[in-house]
Amino acid sequence: MRPYRRTEAGDVMNTTVRHPGPVTVQRLPVRPALRASSGLLALLALAIAAAAGAAASTACGGALSGPPAMQGSARGTAYVLLFAAVPTIAAGAVLAWRGSSRGLIAAAGGLGYAIYNAVLLLFLTPYNRYFLLYVAALGTALWALVALLRATRPDAVRLRSNVRHAPRALAVFMLVVVAFNGLAWLRQILPSITAADPASVLAGTGVMTNAVWVQDLAVWLPVATAAALWLWRRSRLGPLIAGATLVYWVLESASIAVDQWAGSHADPSSPVVAAEMTPLFAVLGVVTLAATVVLLRVIEPGSGVPRSLNAGRSG
Prior knowledge:
The chain is mostly helical. It contains 8 helices and 2 strands; from the N terminus they run ββαααααααα. The protein has one domain.
């Protein structure tokens, strides 16, 4: 008899028993253990609680100040954070714990959205009594995402072997979105920095700088570009980072659609919000959701168990 062979996390163990007759291979299921995952699960729980608290207080509290349009926009963002992003993180974390690579993508994308919008609540919303909630939402979401990615094998999310054209088509779609987004911001920034009063571009916002431009140009658009290129080349990190980026984009499209409507409803005369953007971003969200579904369909469904969730597996 040959001893069983312990394989990588997420696989099964093969026990080969030699008899005088034919060789029999018995496949034993492997189940995750939580012994080594308490820190990760605690961070995810804290991130969910902090995001929900920050969103609920912003949406329902009366401490917001600044221009009415920006207050309405902040409440719109909070609605999407509370009713879309938080459930996405929670459901994705549960599915990832059960071994779903698709759940891993959803959790990572939801955390990315929470990080992005916690920064906006901190820097596009005048200082208020919810400041520490916003800091907690940012910190817990950031470190939960770091812990989740650190606990994940580099090849945890794999494309199906028979898939050929879909990854490159999705990569092109992502690069097109990045290009249009970057050009849209540069179209506003470049004329302003040569104007007599550069800060005039921020009139009506009540803030000293635009945290959306900072985040998009310095962090999120470069990440999306790298993810698209990795997906094009079928690199190991490509499906995970590209999938998380698409999930984040779906949530952000919904967020912009809602916050533009809410901000315009609060102050129809404001130049910094436009209700006309709501249907545009609703359509973009639907298109991005379709792209996300395509990617989720061409990856292996059960390869994404984080390492820490499998550290206690036994045979």
